[in-house]
Specification:
single chain; Phage tail protein; 21 residues; mainly alpha
């Protein structure tokens, strides 16, 4: 799970994707 958070920080656009999940 922590890996996903790191990716989000690198790609703010992916924050929406994770937020939806």
């Amino acid at each position: 799970i922590p890996d996903d958070l790191v990716i989000v920080e690198s790609d703010p656009e992916k924050i929406d994707t994770l937020a939806v999940k």
